[in-house]
């Protein structure tokens, strides 16, 4: 009988799940996080399981590893592993040339240095401030009255960069409103926001060392304007992973599950 291995990443804003069979991704799912992480985990895993003929329920997985903020609240996981380790495993599984990961999630930013074998050498996290995270961008796009995708595309149309100096989410909103009222180009302001976040990421990444083979994971990795600003600030090309970079934590968890290969107990 075929063995299926699952990874479930319960983040602050989204829940992700990945299912592996014979070392290949055969299903994945992503949903908005609900108040109860148990419900989020169950729902996102069920969405992934529905994509696999012959797999009916979470309990049929040979092994399931949980990760993310809500990992300790998922009673049906066989093991819980930190998201730092899981992002490292997931990114290295996708591309073994990766040596530096910048993970920009819903409420934090992490910089992770990897060994040649894909293990974590060192990591650094932002402080409790949400500047530059998904929560920060949610506030920014409300100010511009656009979606995140529209904001990203807007920043790519900038003719120049209008500096945005505020790091605090609340103060940044006020600064953006002021800049818009002064009739600055929205595109130029958007580019300023992207550069401000990129500089914050650079400060963090420098603490672990920025080696060639750098990639971006987490939900904000889909922000093309931010990736462009990071490329300029880090002075190196960003390696784009062949799988949705938002799924790296769940993928890494599934890979770890497959390495152990059996149910606990």
**What is the number of beta strands?**
9
**CATH fold-level topology of the largest domain:** Nucleotidyltransferase, domain 5
What's the main sheet like? 5 strands, mixed
Strand line-up in the sheet with most strands: 3-2-1-4-5
CATH architecture classification of the largest domain: 2-Layer Sandwich
- Shape descriptor reads globular
Count of individual helical segments: 8
State the low-pLDDT regions, or none.
none
**Helix content range:** 25-40%
**Radius of gyration over C-alpha positions, nearest whole angstrom:** 19 Å
Distance separating the two termini? 20 Å
Q: Which CATH class of the largest domain is shown?
A: Alpha Beta
How large a portion of the residues is in β-strands, by DSSP E?
15-25%
Overall pLDDT metric: 89
CATH superfamily of the largest domain: ATPase, nucleotide binding domain
Tally of individual domains: 2
Give the topology string: H per helix, E per strand. Answer: EEEHEEHEEEHHHHEHH
Which structural class do the helices and strands define?
Answer: alpha/beta
Description:
The strands form two sheets. This protein has a five-stranded mixed beta sheet. It has a four-stranded mixed beta sheet with strand order 8-7-6-9. The model has no long low-confidence stretch (mean pLDDT 89). It has 265 residues and is of the alpha/beta class. It is globular. The chain folds into two domains: 96 residues, ATPase, nucleotide binding domain (Nucleotidyltransferase, domain 5); 144 residues, Nucleotidyltransferase, domain 5, CATH 3.30.420. 48% of the residues are buried.
């Amino acid at each position: 009988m075929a063995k299926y291995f699952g990874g479930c990443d319960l983040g602050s804003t989204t829940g992700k799940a990945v299912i592996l069979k014979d070392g290949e991704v055969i299903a994945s799912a992503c949903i908005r996080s609900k108040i109860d992480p148990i419900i989020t985990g169950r729902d996102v895993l069920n969405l992934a399981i529905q994509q696999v003929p012959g797999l009916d329920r979470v309990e049929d997985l040979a092994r399931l590893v949980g990760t993310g903020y809500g990992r300790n609240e998922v009673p049906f996981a066989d093991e819980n592993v930190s998201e730092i380790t899981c992002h490292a495993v997931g990114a290295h599984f996708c591309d073994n040339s990766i040596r530096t990961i910048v993970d920009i999630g819903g409420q934090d930013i992490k910089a992770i240095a990897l060994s040649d074998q894909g293990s974590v050498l060192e990591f650094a996290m932002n402080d409790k401030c949400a500047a530059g995270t998904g929560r920060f961008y949610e506030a920014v796009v409300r100010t511009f009255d656009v979606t995140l995708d529209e904001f990203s595309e807007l920043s790519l149309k900038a003719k120049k960069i209008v500096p945005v100096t505020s790091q605090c989410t609340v103060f940044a909103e006020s600064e953006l409103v002021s800049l818009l009222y002064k009739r600055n180009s929205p595109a130029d302001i958007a580019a300023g926001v992207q550069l401000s976040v990129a500089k914050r990421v650079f400060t963090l990444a420098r603490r672990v060392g920025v080696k060639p083979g750098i990639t971006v994971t987490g939900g904000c990795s889909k922000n093309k304007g931010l990736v462009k600003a990071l490329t300029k600030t880090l002075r190196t090309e960003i390696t784009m992973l062949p799988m949705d970079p938002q799924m790296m934590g769940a993928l890494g968890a599934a890979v770890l599950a497959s390495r152990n290969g059996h149910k606990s107990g």
